[in-house]
Amino acid sequence: MTPLPPRLGQLIKHRRVIVCCGAGGVGKTTTAAALALAGARAGRRVLVLTIDPSKRLAETLGVSRNPPTPVSLPPDRLAAAGITPPGSLDAWMLDPKLIADESVRRLTKTKEDADRVLNNRIYQQISAMVAGMHEYTAMEALHRFVTQGRYDLVVLDTPPSRHALDFLEAPRRLSALIEGKALTAFLPKSDSMVARAASKLVEKILGAIFGQDFAQEFIGFLVTFTGIFQSLTLDVRTMREFLSGDDVAFLLVASPAPAMLAEAYFFHDKTRELGLPFRGFVLNRSQARASALPFPDAAWLGPDAPAAALAALPKLQALAEVERQHAARDQDLVRQLQQKAGSAGAVHPLPELPQGADDMGTLLAIAESLANE
Ligand SMILES: Nc1ncnc2c1ncn2[C@@H]1O[C@H](COP(=O)(O)OP(=O)(O)OP(=O)(O)O)[C@@H](O)[C@H]1O
Ligand SMILES: [Mg+2]
Q: From the CB of 58, is ligand 1 less than 6 Å away?
């Protein structure tokens, strides 16, 4: 007999880390917030690390942009959400740029080194561009909070990127960038006169092309950043081990649109490839559970139905038929996803909610549905 996949309610109660991945707009931030609520309601001390939540959701969680530290949900809201001690809920809005800057500060030896990198135009460009840099820094924040031990559960939302997990393979690529001949040629070398002369020449040429200031800035950047990339390589290895542990669960959020499903499959393959603990799919905006309303027919209207109602009946029937087809399609999707997940994880359908999902009442309903699947 194949073992039953772990229920989401169990993950919420027992794991220390839940990471929500998925394509843009599928509901990662909403799912992360609802899971965090569910965890806190189960009596755990929870932190949710969100990325760019909707304005309304940020208000619901009581977080503003760029607070220096996580913000606790005020006691009256905790009580209203059914969270009682020892349960608690903190939220932090991750600003990947802010965290990347913080990493630079931690990884550089002196304040001058840190400032040199942070103020460097090239760093500013590269930190925004290097695939994986933002994701890496988000995971690093996660790692920091988990190892501090202040929380029983940390839920991490991820940025809307297919590359959200690439940083785990990135050190190779990042250091390749730095070690690439094209770049090292620019580094000032002190080991031989010839090399020094060569790098002076490069500096002169760069200066002539881009201006002296830029050349200096570029070289300064490379020198300090080389050290940082070396530290990253180490940290990422530790992090990959940490993320592969038994305490961690990766949930993949999807919606029934074919492109979104394809992304969920892509992420599923990626977690397997990287050895990360995939533990389930959340199929958001699904009609799999659309209640089986009786199909509208003439008998409904009774013998004295007005002609207008009878005339409207075919339109109602057409709508009911579309709903029926969507429900059948989504039930089929749940089956397909379950097949893909095997015994590693379950599939949790969530309905499309007409009122959106940013307010506390709706989030609580989602939390309940996820926890008591
Ligand atoms: N089941 C649902 N029913 C109705 N609205 C929903 C549902 N799930 C999410 N939403 C709404 O859709 C919007 C996008 O959701 P959310 O921010 O969670 O997605 P995301 O995957 O985090 O997006 P991004 O990739 O941009 O970060 C939000 O306004 C949210 O309230
Ligand atoms: Mg989001």
A: no
Q: Range with the lowest mean pLDDT among 65-74, 143-152, 172-181, 288-297? A: 172-181
Q: Which CATH architecture has domain 11-167+239-285+350-371?
A: 3-Layer(aba) Sandwich (3.40)
The predicted model scores a pTM of 0.81
Of the listed ligands, the closest to the CA of 350 is: 1
**Cis-peptide, bond into residue 349, ω within 30° of zero:** no
* Pocket-testing residue among 20, 21, 29, 253, ligand 1, by greatest number of atoms within 8 A of Cβ: 29
Q: Could you report how far apart the first and last alpha carbons of the chain are, in Å?
A: 22
Query: Which atom of ligand 1 lies nearest, measured to the CA of 30?
Result: 18
Q: Is 190 exposed, middle or buried (0-12, 13-18, 19+ CB in 10 A)?
A: exposed
**Which bound ligand lies closest to the C-alpha atom of 285?**
1
Q: What is the pLDDT of residues 260-276, one digit of tens each?
A: 899 999 999 999 998 99
d(CA 152, CA 154): 7
What whole-number distance in Å separates Cα of residue 33 and Cα of residue 53? 9
- Considering only CA atoms, which residue is closest to atom 30 of ligand 1? 357
Q: 21, 26, 30: which to mutate for ligand 1, most atoms within 8 A of CB? A: 30
Task: Order across the sheet with 278-283: list the strands.
Answer: 71-72, 88-94, 45-51, 153-157, 17-22, 248-254, 278-283, 346-349
In the chain, what are the domain boundaries? 11-167+239-285+350-371
- At residue 153, the 3 state secondary structure works out as strand
Ligand with the closest atom to the CA of 28: 1
Helical spans, DSSP H, in 42-120: 55-61, 75-80, 96-107, 111-118
Establish whether residue 284 lines the binding site of ligand 1, counting it when its CB lies within 6 angstroms of any ligand atom.
yes
Number of helices (H) and strands (E) in the chain: give both, helices first.
16, 8
Helix, strand and coil in the chain, % to nearest 5: 55, 10, 30
Ligand 1 within 6 A of 264 CB? no
166-194 pLDDT, tens digit per residue, is 767 655 555 455 444 444 555 555 556 66
Q: Is the Cβ atom of 359 under 6 angstroms away from ligand 1?
A: no
Centre of ligand 2 to C-alpha 171, Å, is 25
